Each structure stands twice: as structure tokens, then as C-alpha cells.
Fold this protein.
Amino acid sequence: MTASDRPVSERAPLDGRLELLVFDWDGTLFDSVESIVACTEATLRELGLPPAGEKRIRGALGLGLRETVDRFVPGCGDDLFRRIVEVYGRQWVEIYHRRAALFGGAREILEGLSAEGYLLGLATAKGRRGLSRDLAATGVESLFAAVRTVDEAPSKPHPQMLIDILDELEVEPAAALMIGDSVHDLEMAGNAGVAAAGVASGSQGREALLAAGALVCLESVLELPSWLAAGGTGAPAGATL
């Protein structure tokens, strides 16, 4: 039976030997949340649209672009949506992407986990074009055994990104862990029957992440190896169970 045949309402606890670690990108491995917020605000200003506010923008991070725009511009038609995408893309390439980079130590964490034998996956609300640009700039693409973007699957919290990765790598949900900074990451994991760990380095805080089903809320992805080494039961300094 493949992952897509399983009930998506069943989420396994962290139990036994993990084979696969699936990461979100923005806010989890890539320090880009402040840049995304600023770029979104600049896009809305340029188009004369009502401001969304930082809190609402952060709350939408992890969703696909169409779903995000629908939150901020209800009833947005196709023409306006295309204009928003155009302006956001231009603002991002010309200004804001230069402010984003891997979190310090994230590359070493990924390399270490890969060397320990974990399969690494990436499931992101970013489009394939933007992600490819980020991966080329950071040089970590080869570390990921499977990648899914919002261009290839429905937006989080729909489970399809995770289900596709599980099926591609032939890993059972109980042998996988999702790591993300937004409630949408964690809800996607729950919908795919996969355990999840939150990181408080991106879009949302500890209480929201724990309420969304995280087994633990780590200060950042840098604490993940020590938590895994403790069998997923301990709480590194700064973490909340």
C-alpha cells in the first residue's frame, strides 16, 4: 500500500527509527521571512492595494501564492492576480532576495544529518523557479533526495507534497518527520499521517506551532540533531515540548 492509500487523518507519533526528514524552506532553513514580509508590503503599496499587516502576512507564510493573495485581496480576479505576481517577482529579484540566505549553520546540519544516513526531503510553498534560484545560490540542492513545490502539488496544508515524497522514496509515514516554521507545515504533516517538529525561527511562534500538532518546538533547526539523538523525547535548550 502506498502513502496515498492511507487515511490522512492518522498522524503517527515519533516512534522507532526515522528514515526521512522533510524540511520546509522559507523560515526553516532559509532566513527569508523578513524579506518576504517586506516584499509583500511593497507589492501591495505599489499596486495601491490595502496593506495586509505583518501579522497577517506571517500567518499566510507556507500557503501558495494564490491562496495568500485570496486572503489579502478577496475576490481577486485573474488579471489583478497576474499583476500582483509580476510586481512581487520584480520586487523580489531586484531588491529583497539579496537579503535572504541560509540560516547560519543550516548547511552543516543538513550535511551532518545526511552523513548519518537520513534521507532529506524538501516541501515548500515556494514556486519551482524561485526555489531553484535559492538552491543554486546556497549549494545545498544535492543534499535533498526529493523536492516538491507548490507548482507540483496543492498548497499546504493539503498533504500531497508529503505523500508524493513518501511515495517517491518508498518511506512509510511513521518513518518520516516534517520540520517547519508555520502551522501550515504542521497541519500538512498531520494530514499525511507524519509526525512534525516546529521551529520558532520563522513565521509563527511556539504556542501556535505546538497547538498545530508539533511534537516539540525547537528554537531553530540547529537544535534538531540533538533532539533526534535523544530519540525525539528530550527538549534541547530553548525548546518547548
Remarks:
- Confidence is low (pLDDT under 50) at residues 1-13.
